[in-house]
């Protein structure tokens, strides 16, 4: 029974739909920014292309070789330093591994909390978006109804309070007991039992 309740609760929860609506709305907002970025890149592209054309390939190659040599020397120095300072004490390595594992669990839990918060924020944004869509749709339908039917005419409100003479007549009618109807005869609902023919 608990599984059925969990499934019913899961399937009736609108949060995933709100999350999808919020994601779609955020994607649409980001897509609206793309034309401006394209125009900016289009404006900057000639200057960048010209800068690339004016660079000397040999100078770029020399810079890359110098950076590669520096990176190799730095890496070799760090590796030799690490090997020189490596502690062989297994107990210390075990404690370090356990500490790293606990830190990893803590970081994973933190990321799970952040992911849940982000999910809820996007779902709230989606709920607002859906409300906005529904409001806009309702306004469009209302405008369409006004166009089709015309503007509604004001309706005069009547005061239907009974006059004193009518009130006395109604109270006298309320005092008279209503005629009782005889109960309908009951039909028999028992079925006849038939025996199957003998073979």
Describe the protein's architecture and organization.
By secondary structure, this protein is mostly helical. The chain has a domain at 12-54 and 87-149. The protein is built from five helices and no strands. The chain is flat, with a radius of gyration of 41 Å.
The number of E-state strands comes to: 0
Shape, principal axes of CA atoms = flat
- By DSSP (H or I, 4+ residues per run), the number of helices equals 5
From the N-terminal CA to the C-terminal CA, the straight-line distance is 48 Å
Query: Mean of residue pLDDT?
Result: 75
Which range best describes the helical content: under 10%, 10-25%, 25-40%, 40-55%, 55-70% or over 70%?
over 70%
The main pleated sheet reads as: none
Low-confidence stretches: none
**Could you state the order of secondary-structure elements as H and E?**
HHHHH
- Category by helix and strand content: mainly alpha
Characteristic key phrases:
199 residues, mainly alpha, 0% strand
Question: Brief description of this entry?
Answer:
The protein has five helices and no strands. By secondary structure, the protein is mainly alpha-helical.
